[in-house]
Amino acid sequence: MITGNLKITAALATALALAGCFGGSGGGGGSGGVPVTIDETVLSASAGTLAEPYILPATFPSGTNGGIDDYRSRGGVWQVSFNGMTAIRVSGPVTATLGSTAIYDTANDEWTITVDGADITMPVDGGIPTGGRYVTPSTCSVNCGELSVLDSGISENDYGFLARAWYRPTGLFADSVYFFAHFGMKTPLGDIPNSGTASFSYGSNSGFFVRAYYDRGDGVMRPLNFIGDPALTATFSPSGGAVDLNLDTGVQSNGSWLTLAGSATITGNEYSGTVTGEFYSGDEDAVTVQLAPDGAGSSYSGAFYGPSMAETLGVVYAATEAGSATTGELVGQFQAKQTSYTP
Length: 343
Fold this sequence. Notes:
Elements: E1 4-9, E2 41-43, E3 50-53, H1 68-74, E4 77-81, E5 83-89, E6 98-105, E7 110-115, E8 119-122, E9 133-135, E10 144-151, E11 160-168, E12 177-184, E13 197-201, E14 208-215, E15 221-228, E16 231-237, E17 240-248, E18 257-267, E19 270-280, E20 288-290, E21 299-305, E22 311-319, E23 328-342
Parallel strand pairs: 1-8
Antiparallel strand pairs: 1-7, 2-3, 2-4, 4-6, 5-12, 6-7, 9-10, 10-11, 11-12, 13-16, 13-23, 14-15, 14-23, 16-17, 17-18, 18-19, 19-20, 19-21, 21-22, 22-23
């Protein structure tokens, strides 16, 4: 978990592929013109205190994204609530915690998130003219960071958003903390069934991103990135039901691979549980990392977004058991659109 105030300035993109790992729009899956509400609250820019709840428009025009552009066009200062946050530190335990809310000021086009009480201003990265990726200046030596915000891009109206950031309280790479979260227009509770089965996938090899670290035996943690297409099956019951998760990259270009399997309990329009699996470092180091087989210490959670569960977004965290000969851990996030529902 992470804690401080990260303040992000400049233009916010509506379709940033998080460091190239979450890309492009997926077609279909959405329902243009379907009434949607959101629990976000507009703030008083002058007083800096919560004002009346503000609801995004009842309908989103077909073929347009229904999210960040709408914040801008409505103006004001918005507070959004993060869901399912998780974090990873490059080496050692995570000691920072991320606040549960973020602020977006449309007038100044800047976001503020809370990380251990430190204020960090992040201008947009000049290398991405449309915005969406924010980094501290190259002269930064302490309390440095980077943030990316992405519309889910998996349905016509983009009901969910992914956020990913790293925070470095010192100038040392080993102190870096990565956090992953999601937020947006969660499915109304009345749209959550009490029976039936729904399937979800992204539809291409960029529906999930996982950042992993492993030690090949010399005490140095080395990074790995994984991408792929998540597969989720939600089985509903009067008591809630469960969501099974399967992430499998297959063999990547460097020979590395990752498999994860999770099971979570549904509560309302959210779900949470544990995850197990393993990953392979690639042929250069040839290290296989077995995550805790009983899911001990892991977390897997998500939420349904949009009308009739149009989308689901979530996060995962897992690590090896204490005393393992080969150590490693991973953190990541996923996005998927509903592909079928059987009552």
